[in-house]
Amino acid sequence: MPSIVYRGVGPRIAYERRIAGLTQAELARVAGIALGSLRKVERGERGISEAVLDSVATALDIDPSRLLPLREQPDDRVHQAMPTLSAALATYEAPEDGPCRALPAIGEAAASVAAYRLSAQYLRIARTVPDLLAELCRALHTAASGDRPTLARLLVDACRAADAVAFKYGAKDLSARLIALMGWASSQADDPLVNATVAYVRAETFFAARAHAAGLRILEQAVVETPPDSAPPALAARGALHMRAAVMAGRAGDGDAAECHLDEARAVGDQVPEGVYRGTAFGPDSVRVHEVSVAVSLGDNHLGRALQLAREWAPPRDLPAERRSGFYIELGRAQLWSGRPDAAFESLKAARRIAPQHAREHRWVREDAATLRRLKRADAESLSNFAEWCHAGSAV
């Protein structure tokens, strides 16, 4: 993948450095770069390569996209990764020869991309996941029988991270192929909870096709097939499926089914602490986020419930960034539809602060920003900059 040199990032690096309470010398040391180079970048005297940008972002514990100017195009790397990702999928049953790390090292790499997904760091996924998928396919192809279930589960996790990028960046055919690979791998994982994960992810294809009634049937069948175990991972798997089924039912206009699944999710959520189980956030806070989503899906008289919940509660900082960002995107839509455009714009900006790449690539953010721009009810310059940042013109 060709290297990219970014310019105009100096003020943002300086700002984030001060927020982190670091001196230039401290940041340079942690990032492993020369102090003189960092000073020149912050003064705007030189650009910064993507490798150094990633090092600085890692040292600041933030996503690289937060250091880029709003008019920069950080998604170039994502689109450049698509052919490599597609090539890895094409050879999954007969992978090319290449190196394979020991199972613990591969597991750590898969855990890293799963964490990138939860924090909506799509640029980092795009940079690492194609090679990881190829390596996992090689390892699974040659593994001893005792290691195959573990490798299959790791392949599902890596595919899920890759799908988060493909789906959100509009590569729907690639997304469908990744979900198919997840199904192939899950059949070798010897773990019914992996099947529940695949069903949860597969639901996005029904959302995209607006085949909500069919998607609801698939999710309800997955609930039935999930083991009736009282251990937290099994409870969380069932609860997550109920959450997603509630939203699917809301999109289908079936309010009774939506409330039924929400009630089931709440009951399960009361039995497990909030956390990430098998790659999916679940617990009482996640259920509250989905209450807002269901209210927005049902629309009309249900929007008041979303606004009320937002007055009483806000997602805690330890909830994964993608989920917190999603809450404010859903809330912004409820506020816009309820005739509160200024509040809606504040919610969209909150979503961007939490997970910029998630907000930028979300279809509703683009649609709502375009609507707000037409209404001209917020600060014109600030709103115009936001709309350009998220390509809102493509939603008009």
Number of helical segments with 4 or more residues: 20
Q: Strand percentage, roughly?
A: under 5%
Q: Largest sheet at a glance?
A: 2 strands, antiparallel
Enter the CATH topology name of the largest domain: Serine Threonine Protein Phosphatase 5, Tetratricopeptide repeat
Shape: globular
Q: What is the helix/strand order?
A: EHHHEHHHHHHHHHHEEHHHHHHH
CATH architecture of the largest domain: Alpha Horseshoe
CA radius of gyration = 22 Å
Determine the N-to-C terminus distance.
Answer: 33 Å
State the CATH class of the largest domain: Mainly Alpha
- What does the average pLDDT come to? 90
Low-confidence stretches: none
- Given helix and strand content, the structural type is mainly alpha
Number of distinct beta strands: 4
Name the strands of the widest sheet in spatial order: 1-2
Domain count: the total is 3
Helical content (DSSP H or I, runs of 4+)? 55-70%
Keywords for this structure?
about 5% strand; about 70% helix; about 400 residues; Serine Threonine Protein Phosphatase 5, Tetratricopeptide repeat; 434 Repressor (Amino-terminal Domain); 3 domains; 20 helices; two-stranded antiparallel sheet
Can you put this structure into words, describing what you see?
This protein is mostly helical. It folds into 3 domains: 1-69, 434 Repressor (Amino-terminal Domain), CATH 1.10.260; 74-188; 191-319, Serine Threonine Protein Phosphatase 5, Tetratricopeptide repeat (Alpha Horseshoe), CATH 1.25.40. 70% of the residues lie in helices and 3% in strands. The protein is built from 20 helices and 4 strands. The protein has helices spanning 10-19, 24-31, 35-42, 50-60, 76-90, 103-118, 122-142, 148-168, 172-186, 192-209, 212-225, 232-251, 255-269, 284-298, 303-312, 321-337, 341-354, 356-360, 363-375, 380-389; strands at 5-6, 48-49, 275-277, 280-282. It has a two-stranded antiparallel sheet. The chain has a two-stranded antiparallel sheet with strand order 3-4. The chain is globular, with a radius of gyration of 22 Å.
